[in-house]
Amino acid sequence: MPIRILGVNGNIHDSAVCLLEDGKIAYAVEEERLNRRKHYGGPPDKALATLSRNTRIDWQAADHYAIPWKPRRFLGHNLREDLARLPGRPGLHLHAIANTLDVFGRHLQFEKRFTSLGKPVAIIEHHLAHAASAFFVSGFKESAILTYDARGEDISTMLAYGQGLDIDVLRRIKLPHSLGHLYAQITDYLGFGKNDEYKVMGLAAYGKPRFTDFFARTIRLDGPGRYTVDRRNLDYYRGYTAELLRLGSARAPEEPITDFHRDIAASVQAHLEKAAFHLADFLQKETGSKNLCIAGGVGLNGVVNGKLLSSGKWSGLYVQPAAGDSGLAIGAAFHVWHTVLRRPREFVMDRADFGPVFSKAAVEETLKRLKIPFTSVDDPAAAAAQRIASGQVVGWFQGRAEFGPRALGNRSILADPRDPAMKERVNALVKNRENFRPFAPAILEEETRSYVDFDPPFPFMIVVLPVRPEKRSVIPATVHVDGTARVQTVSPKTSPLFWRLISQFKQRTGVGVVLNTSFNIQGEPIVNTPEDAVRTFYSSGLDALVIENCLVTKSAS
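Request: output the structure for the sequence above.
Response:
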């Protein structure tokens, strides 16, 4: 019988589950894909239920459970913070204390749900689970490890070294010092919503970093591998400081974006990059490694990742595709498999399609039940490529759902990257999002060097790289204003059907690239079921939907 380990992230945000069978991912899904609530942070009840349906394995029959959160450490930090501030604003901080106690109680109940089953339950430090999620699946025998986000239980950053089955923690940077909090507060200050940091990253390319002095005073790089926050300039718990507001007033969401906002975005991005290099340089000096693994929510900043790679300091870079908290389910499970059980490393996460799947028969049944006219096609890749080459925008729903925030060719919207107007068209017809946000090119892996000056693979759309100048006019719909792109390379080994689609597109156009963005509309999670796909198709301006071997259109064409 295989040994099964269930990693479960719940009651933080980005709830998710990951099932390992003998050290390989058998199933992984985020709760938001199922309950349709973005960044949902409660118990992953639907994820556990679909795990049983999709794998025919009762989640309660796992041999080990792993939870990536130490609630007692969280409780201790929050109570110390709120009690210290209590005399100044008692009403506010009494409310915060009550909330902390409520969160702590819910975490204990969540733990009890698994400990009551009588199986071993590992309670793993948040950032150690982040580190495990990247290093243990990277394929590197040894590597420096950088994890950073807004917060774990009481820390925001971990610097570590992975070797074999072990992760040695070199340094923890404790709250309130947090690069993630800095970026999150500036995201809010610029009028964007919670978890919208990627919008700031996109906007930064349009601005000038003329406020770097303020951010250098705010996040001080004190010494090798260290930084501190000046709370007079930034206090995530207290709101905007007078120092921040001296730069200018906060933007309301409905207000136009000005050069001031663009320059703030450019400035915070520039200082984040400087801080990341500061931490990474320390890691390299301490470990001597030329490999770097990255996880944690800040690891989703593809511009930072690309600049680290472009620096030439690292010969190997692995960024966990689910670098945010959903990836904790993966890391917690692999921590048990390798660190606790001492099992050898054999699995490499070079793909992300570990989620729910729907058979061709199930898709046809759904379309018939919903009375959706469709045509059966023998070659869905060719059918989609033909329509994309003719200028249509196509919904593409195939195989297992991807785990993480990116659609990588299984739950995607695809379009022609050659058309300079295609970015605006996709935004207008489907995505309804800000025009400063770029779309990504999905490139045939064997043609990577034709478009960027780096060797593949880049399968996860998580590294932003300069596009060769002579190619920027070839795929303009996927090139950002600064000449970069969030590159995804597509391999026939890991994504054979998506690779075939792009190959078919190349046969028709001479270009081995398609525009790839997630199959969803603004404010919704990526589609998960055939019903989700059909609803999104008819509520958007998509021209066609290729769902398994079924072609759905809105006209007789």
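The chain has a mean pLDDT of 96.
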